[in-house]
Amino acid sequence: MQQESQKDIQDHLRDSLQDSLQHIPKTDKLLNALNAELKMVNPSLLKRITLEFLDAYRQELLEGGVLLDFSTCVKRIVATYQNATQKSLKPLINATGIVVHTNLGRSIFSEEILEEIKPILTQYNNLEYNLQKGSRGERYIHLQGQFKALLGAEDVLVVNNNAAAVFLILNTFAKGKEVIVSRGELIEIGGSFRIPRVMEDSGAILHEVGTTNKTHFKDYQEAISENSAMLFKAHKSNYAIEGFSEEVGFNELVKLARKYNLIDYYDLGSGYFSVLDSVFTGYEPSLETISALNPSLVSFSGDKLIGGAQAGIIFGKKALIDKLKQNQLLRMLRVDKFTIAALEATLSAYLKGNIKVIPTAQMLLRDKESLHALAQELAAQIPPNFNPQIIATKSYSGGGAMPSHYLESFGVAIFAKDLSVLKLDETKLEQHFRRYGIIARLENSALILDMRTLFKSDFTRIVESLKALL
Ligand SMILES: *Cc1c(COP(=O)(O)O)cnc(C)c1O
Question: Which residues get modified to N6-(pyridoxal phosphate)lysine (predicted)?
């Protein structure tokens, strides 16, 4: 009797399941509806997403899930499709005051630079073509003239990024040989680039000298042996040793290397042209100053303080750069026309003294008066409910330059106490800003928008995002 009724229940369940499964929409019918809804589609992607949806839906029903009506099915597939076809990179507003912010894409380009490089990218070009001879040309020729003119260096080579430059130089000149480095400069940058590890992978043998806080000239001198290839100096970039410390200047390493017929190499990290002297003097030497030492090799990034594209720029002695060009690795580290075009336009602006088209330089050079005026302008546009205050702030060049020195700036602050009436606090406001693509700074119960990295064209979005909270 009991068995009988259980069987009844099972039969009933099976019947209703059959019924449910029959209600799953047919693929063709769904695709027609989807095509009408989405207008322009990638047919194979849409079909794959639809089939995946139907599989998952069938599985859900088998596990006791509920039936969906046709339009709900269409809606869900449309959402998945739109998600799959969305771009991942999004423009953001940098209100942090850190000019070269690696997480936010480092240096940005101006409309003028983009207009200038547009013909190179939308048309064929002489990337590796010698127009005079009508034959194959050299990719590395392009940026040479401009860099040489700016730096007064014998030769220049541009690779994919500065990390690649460091690796290429060590691999070319110090494989199986000793590289002498101060213990105070065995740095890690950005979590993945560690000098000792890069040395090891390049085949170079690390010879540490000195101590963490003090390295003397004689430490380098005493470490030199017949197995030494190079005296290496690394910019400390993201830290500074305060107090009882001493390091040997690159000028002394250049002299010492020359005396013992070794290569001196400075991994400079950032590097800036002397038009920015007013920002960095006393903290960082300009590229021109370093080049005037007549060093063997120096490398720095293309998208840090010079404000161009991601690249590793190597300059120094022609004989050494010729050797770098013979290393097979160079083929793997080579730069694209995008990079060359963007860097060329940036360098051309420096050569012409037209640095207003280089946003990184512009932001670094902003003076207190103009920053204050910008802050006033933004504060005036913000709804009074937020009680925006103009405050003095500390902004940073970023990119590993002057890690312990700030640039005086002004910002607009919105304080927690003024947010409570709106049932908000500063962390909620910070999250809200992020949803609008605005990256701001939290400090002492306030949310701060630093003017050094903002443009007037950013104000509309900032003001609109705040209005949306009222
Ligand atoms: C930033 C930096 C690097 C890495 O340069 P990328 O262009 O990011 O590859 C290497 N060395 C130093 C000292 C740096 O500051």
Answer: 304
